[in-house]
Amino acid sequence: MMSLPKPEVIITHESDLDGFVAGALLQRLSKKLYGSEIPLQAFHYNLWKQRDVHEKSAWVTDLTFEARLDKPNWVVIDHHATDVQPKNATLIHDISKSAGLLCYELCRQHGLASPALDRLVHLNNVSDLFLEDDPDFALACDYANLVKVYQYWNLQSLIGNEIEKLLDHPLLEVMSVKRRVEDPIGFEWSLKNVTRISDSVGYVDTVIGNTNLIVHQLLEQKAVKFPVLVTLFKRANNLVIASFRSRNGEALKIAEKFQGGGHANASGAIMPKSVRNVPDAVEYIRTVLQPKSGPPLNPLESLFAGLDVEKK
Question: What is the pTM of this model?
């Protein structure tokens, strides 16, 4: 059984169900091991890359292991590809498992398992790894869509650390109806509204439906000529979020040009704060990917100035 140092903070990914589940599980594990509630913080990739990692000890999950995290008494539990080899930190890493499953395996070692958690972690694993052949794939996508639609901290406020409450939650009925009714309509509309940004990247406008599934369907059917598709949406705090999708590993390379990150075929990035709406974001992405002659554009210009990072 692995011995884990007591963390000052637990840090997870804010934008999806995997980060939600993994963070809650680590918070539960830390309470079992140390008898106290460890603060939980959640970040999008861009904000995480800007955060100072000053703590003497921390647990990090669902965020890519990088050299700055290679510190004594730091534990990183993740499944994103990395070429950094740990020299000081403890890295628990497996690209074939979701971060939630990796954290749950640690919980199991300390007696924190239940049939409800077994089920929830399975659904999270299916959705995060996009295991289309699993019989629970459609249902798992409904669970994942809860975080996309209602957002991380809103769900956290509703259920706290009791993530088992997500199972058969009434909001899943809303997700199911949206999938059956909205997705086919949204796919047909989006198919006619794909805009060229560069030779390799197309912008998919969406008005209705699960954008991830719609874009996945466009790529699977080879309905468009672009190997990378990007969708954009504006959050309540006026930040514009870009989601990049591909089939052959190109999405992550594009996201990294905007200080983003994620999986090889499913990555995201936050646009600079100076980008206030979706049309501006389309032009910004086009400018970065196809810069005009003259002084190079700095993608970090005005990035995150004055942002307040949510902490719980």
Answer: 0.78
